Structure formats: C-alpha cells, structure tokens
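pipeline/complex-builder :: batch 7 item 3
reading input block
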Amino acid sequence: MTDTPDGSNPGTVPGAELEREVAGYYEAYAVQLLRYAETHTRDLDLGKDAVQEVFLRYFAERRFGNRIENPRAWLYRVLHNHLLDRLSRAAMKCEVSADGTERMADLQAGAEMRMEQRQTAREIEARLTPRELACLRLRVEGLSYQEIADRLGVRIGTVGALLPRVYTKLREGVNEGAFFTESTAGALFFLLGRGQPYAS
Amino acid sequence: MIGVVVFAVWQLTGSDIWIEDFFRIPGALLMVCMSAAGLFSSRRVYRGFFPGEPMRIVWELIAGSALCGFAGSALIQLFGTASLLNPLHYWGDGHRLASQARSAGIVLDGPIRFALLTTALFLVLRQYRQSGFLAGYKLIDWAVLIFTGGYVVREAIDVIARIIHRKALTPAELVNLPVDPLLWILLAESLLLFRSVRNMGSGWISKCYGAFCAGIFLILVGDMALWATSWGYLPWPWSALGWYVWMPAAAAFALAPTYQWEAMRSAEFAGTASPA
Amino acid sequence: MHPDIETLVTHHFGELAPPLEKSVALHVAGCAECQLELGRLGAAGDQTPPAEPPKGADALLTKLRYWESESTETHSLGELKLRVESTLAPYLGKSAAKSLLQTVRHDGRDVLTQVAPLLTIFLGRRAAGNLVSHVVENAIVNTQTTVRL
C-alpha cells in the first residue's frame, strides 16, 4: 500500500529519485504535520524543528534501504514519538518555558501593563466562543485534558480539538496586533479571576 | 501461621486431608497460576501481530495451546482432586463429577494442547528456514530421538498387545493415545529449534523459543518417568524424582511468551525517554 | 490493546482494511487516550492556514544533500555495522545480527533492506517499525552533528 508521488517505494533508491519522493511528501504533508505538532506543544520553533527532523529521518531511512508502506502514517508516528521524547526530556531537565518567564514579567508589571492586560483579556473574550474560553481558563489553571473534559461534560477528543483552535486564534490576534504579546499571559490571569464556570 | 493452624486442625480432627491439602494446594495453585501467566502473555503477544502477519497464526496457536493448558490445569489441580479447595467436594455427586473434570482436564492439557503446539512450532521452524537461520541436528540429537522414539514404539506395542488380548482401553486411554507420539514430534521440532536459536545467540527471541524447548523436554522426561514407574523400572523413592519436573516445565511455558512480549515491547519503545 | 499511532492515522484517513478497521473503531469508542489522539489528528487537518507555514521543499532538499554529504564522510561500513549490530543483538542475538549484516553493500545503503524484513517477521510490523527507526536514529542520524534545518 504505497502512495508515493511517482508510485514507487523500492528498497534502495537512487539519490535523485529519493529527493523527488521526499519533496513530494513535504509538499503534501508538511502543513498538516506542523499543525499536528502544534497540538502537542505551543512552542512553534520546537514544532518546526520536529517536522524538519522527521523528514530528515524519512530521508535517512529510505536512503539506507527501508521500504515504508504507508509514508503518511509513518511521518505522523515518527513525529509523535519525537515530540513526546523531546517534551519528556525537557520536563526531566525542568526547563523554564517562555510562557513561564513571560508570566513572571507580567506579575511584576506596573499600572500601564495592567491596563494593557485588561484590554487584551477583553479582546480574547471577544474572539473565543464561550466553550473555547472555558477550555482556555481550565487549561491555564493547569488541568489536564481529561480533567477539562470531565469538568465541561464533553469528550476528551473535543478538548483535543478545541485547544489548538484557541491557540491558533491567540496567535492570529498577536499577528494582527490586536493583542499585546507581553500582556497575553497577564490577560489570561485576568480571565481566570473574572471567569464563571461554564454552564453547558 | 496457616501451617500452624492447619496442623492444629489436623490434630483435633484426626483427618489427614488437612495436612495433605496443606502441602498439595500451594503446588496446585502455583501450577494453575503459571499456566494462567503463560496464557496471559501468549495472548498479548498474539495481539501484537497484525492480521496477515506470518507469526500471528503461530501465536494464535500458542495462545490456544496455553488456553488448553490453563483449562486443563484448573480442571486437574482444582476440580479433579479430593481437596477442600474443590467446590465439587461439597456437591452431592461430587466424586463422580471430580473424576469427569479430571478426565476432561487430561484431554485438554494433553493431546489437544500438544497438537496445537506441534503445529505452531512447525510454522516457527518454517520461518527459521525461510530466514536462513535453521540449523541441523547433531549426533547427540539423533541419539536422543532414537532413544525416545524407542520409548514411543514400546508404548505402542503395549497398546497393541492389550487390544490383541481383548483388554479394552478406557475412553481416557483412547483419547490420550496420541500424546506420546505428539510429544516425540514436539521433541524433534524443539531439538531443531534449540540448535537454531543457539546459532542465533542469546537474544529475547532465542530465549523465548529456548524456553519452549526446555518445557517440552521436561514434559517428555516426566512422561517417561511416569511410564517407567508404572512398569516398575523406577522404584520408590526414585520415582519421586519424576514429580520435580512438572513445576519447572510449567515455569518454562509461562516464561517463553514473556520473553517474546518483552522483545516486542522493548522494540516498540526503543529510543524513547519513557514508554508512551 | 491500544492501536499504535500509525494504525490510528490510517484509521483516521479511512485506509484500514475492514477486519482491522472494525476492531480499531470498537476500541476507540471506549478509549479516552485514542480519542484524544484522533482529536489532534482532526485538528491537524483543519483548513485554516498555519501561523507560519513550513519552509519550502527547496530549502529542505539543500539541507538533506548537505546531510548526505556529511554522512558519506562520517560513516565507515565497519562502524555502521557495529552500531546496528549492538542495537539488534538484544532482540535477535549477537550471532544472528552479525550474520544478517554480512551481506550488506560496501556503502551500507542496503543495511535496512537486510534487517527490516526479519525484524518484521519476528517482532511484528508495529514493533519492528519503531525498532528500525531507532536503528536509524542510533546508528545513522545521531552519529554526526545534527544538521539544523
């Protein structure tokens, strides 16, 4: 069951043919893979790194003679394992995330910053649906996906689909200039303080 | 503590069944638990192969064999004995039911189990041959096969003699006729498999099939000891030595699929910081 | 038992063979962990363009060619065989791993062609796939300075 662009997936592949194969899969799947990586980590650079690493692994594995029956599924599998591995190694090393440092900075912000944070919080509330907002609040509080699902009375798959949408909307807000990047984390704390339990 | 209590009850009641069961029951439970462990592991290994993969049918047969072993062991060790643990002991017609349970257990744990295992190991050997790792017999293997073959032929002669002299075989004896020929075939397969895994070196897969070989060899030794005892070739107390093979044999069959499972699990999580 | 990620992805895209599809669907219906993973796969297929699309294929190919030129210098066949052998020995046995690698080409480019089929037979496709990826990571990719793409 092969679905290579040129319809072949032999064992040992000549260099040029393999390059075409990898380029074809990159064009076809890189965007989806990056989005999949974003569901595991909010660190965009880590996600991009991971996607590129996966294509390198694909290239290496094919270059050294392995046949891959289902390249798309293979790419997702290697990406999934690579991300889990990097995240668990980072957790073991107790790395401080960018969000953490941003939160620390926000907590010490002055009055002007607090005003910006309130404004950002209002903007975030306007962009998100009530369910998305509830999900975000619970996630910022540190609940796991299962705990969020239990609290909201939804399936865990729904939470898994909702949160990436939330992150996308937050990023769009930053890109459009609607949010002040430095105040986003503080804004989330405002949302925590003002939020009411979501009534389903 | 339990031993002290049982001793006291034995002294008070004067019934030997208390002290007999105290020594028999742990052994019986251990045999049943080991066969349960083998079944559990075999089933996990079987489910680790996708439909259509060549080793899936092998492990389906091994799991089937393990299921027969477990069911047979439970019927023989728990439901087929005059024991306080046996619920049938408290039934009205318990003695007859226990006897039937024991016979059913012997059939399950005998010809059916070994037939499934014989087929499974045949397919394993075929895979080894296709992969180029099948070894050959050595001189000592031929000697063992000839000696044990002689034992099987001698048993067959005994059966034929009984039929000629119009001594009827019981249904249990009839059903168990294939056991020794099957054991001999299993021995032939396991000797070949043993030589092949020795050539491969000591990995998990080699240990898995090596454990099967050890279990089969021990069962055959135990079987021959029983025959020798029944014919007076192995007098008491030497015949008691034959009892000691059944536990290690059961342990070998429990261990074998665990090695394969460990290999598959370790491969699946190879290179990760922690299992997913 | 949980289906592996590859099976879940294949199930998500509706490409599983019918007997396996049925058993996977049955498992997923009652498994929170698998539902979460399917949720992530669903989010990945969302039509909204990502914040930053990945770099073009041309840049990727340049880097892969650089990696390949580096790997040609870094890998001697003997070292490659030794590393692959040490990774496979716990599973197949040292002698089996060694004899498997005896017929590998001078440039080592068919090492996985020799190794992967046997692993698939004895360990199953799921476990063998991960192990082969680990062999690639251990013995090939991570033996040189990682190329940051």
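note: The interface with chain A takes residues 271-274, 276 of chain B (CB under 8 Å).
queue -> next item
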